[in-house]
Design goal:
By secondary structure, the chain is mainly beta. Helix content is 5%, strand content 45%. A 9-stranded antiparallel β-sheet has the order 11-12-13-14-30-24-23-18-21. Strands 17-28-25-22-19-20 form a 6-stranded antiparallel β-sheet. The protein has a 5-stranded antiparallel β-sheet with strand order 1-2-3-4-5, with no helix packed on it. The radius of gyration is 19 Å and the shape is globular. The structure holds alpha-D-quinovopyranose. InterPro entries: Ald1_epimerase_CS, Aldose_1-epimerase, Aldose_1/G6P_1-epimerase, Gal_mutarotase_sf_dom, Galactose_mutarotase-like, GH-type_carb-bd.
Length: 352
């Protein structure tokens, strides 16, 4: 188990460092102190070939210019907040309308684009990085001084766990996630359309024209949103289902887990033989198939194109503050926000 670091860039006069965690079996996870961005996750395929399975850039400048939240921790609130405003105890708070007219992923300068303080963790069977950030009262329009810690831990069972913890001195909102784009083919050899996704979910949130939840929970049965038996992502992308078309001919939807407590998501790629098992304590996962990734830039030498990666953003329900029926995203001063999502990688002839 080891952790090494290297200069990756400079941001607002602060050093950007890339930390690489490596376990005893060769799996490695690289991440930045900028946005807790995961830049690489390198795991073996069925033949033991170690390749990168997430979208990330080789240069810091590309993150500033092009990144649609590649690998980043998203906060204070993941997803959209309608009209970039909310009310708490009769007080109205105005947020950055960075996805006009709505607020998206924590605003103009959310958790994904700030420098976090870091502490290395080196133990016999685990190596990791603990990241800290204090979001001051009024930052991006949110009330309360919010202290957040995000801990990445890599084990010798090829599992990356991400734990989130936060405390506030004033009632505020919080809904954290990680926005990694997975592509199990390895080094972006193919897109994610042939990936198979499986999870226990019978409902998903209907989105309106501006991708804001309408508040309606739609049945997944007999639709491209039914993943209970496993489904190729392509079957959704090609569907004429109105919600698929609305999201840009793909998925961009919160899928609600059937049961409360811990839930599991399986993502697999037949050709490489790679499997990813995600385990989370969150009530939903926003499935985003990078429907809008096309652009005049390259990702580790591969031209940006739609469907090159799939996001599994485990989180609270988007725009929950405007939907009393959704699990709350309000954090009180006497509470501690805590959440954990684990990502365990296997390959079908070399499982650990
Ligand atoms: C688009 O609607 C999607 C979001 O879900 C995603 O997080 C973002 O692109 C990167 O806005």
């Amino acid at each position: 188990m080891k952790i090494v670091e290297r200069e990756f860039g400079n941001y607002d006069g602060e050093r950007v460092i890339e930390y690489t965690l490596t376990n005893d079996f060769g799996m490695s996870v690289s991440c930045l102190n900028y946005g807790c961005v995961i830049t690489k996750i390198i795991v073996p395929d069925r033949n033991g070939h170690f390749e990168n399975v997430v979208l990330g850039f080789d240069r810091f400048e590309d993150y500033l210019e092009w990144s649609p939240y590649f690998g980043a921790v998203i906060g204070r609130v993941a997803g959209r907040i309608k009209d970039a405003r909310f009310e708490l105890d009769g007080e109205e708070y105005l947020l950055a309308a960075n996805d006009y007219p709505n607020h998206l992923h924590g605003g103009q300068k959310g958790f994904s684009s700030v420098i976090w303080k870091t502490e290395k963790i080196e133990q016999e069977n685990v190596v990791g990085l603990k990241c800290f950030y204090r979001s001051l009262d009024g930052e991006e329009g949110y009330p309360g001084n919010l202290d957040t810690a995000v801990t990445y831990l890599l084990s010798n069972t090829n599992e990356l766990s991400i734990s989130y913890e936060a405390r506030t001195d004033h009632k505020t909102l919080i809904n954290l996630t990680n926005h990694s784009y997975f592509n199990l083919s390895g080094n972006l050899k193919r897109d994610c359309s042939e990936h198979i996704l499986q999870l226990e979910s019978d409902r998903f949130l209907e989105l309106g024209l501006d991708l804001i939840p309408t508040g309606k929970m739609l049945e997944s049965k007999n639709t491209p949103f039914d993943f209970n038996q496993g489904r190729f992502l392509l079957s959704g992308m090609k569907s004429s289902h109105p919600q698929i078309v609305l999201a840009g001919n793909g998925y961009d939807h919160p899928l609600l887990f059937k049961k409360s407590g811990e839930n599991t998501i399986m993502l697999s790629d037949k050709e490489s033989g790679r499997f990813l098992r995600v385990t989370t304590d969150q009530p939903c996962v926003v499935l985003y198939t990078s429907n809008q990734l096309e652009g005049p830039f390259s990702i580790s030498g591969v031209r940006a194109r739609n469907y090159l990666g799939v996001c599994l953003e485990t989180q609270g329900l988007p725009d929950a503050i405007h939907h009393p029926g959704f699990p709350t995203v309000i954090l009180h001063p006497e509470e501690v926000y805590y959440s954990k999502t684990k990502y365990r990688f296997f390959s079908n002839t070399i499982g650990v």
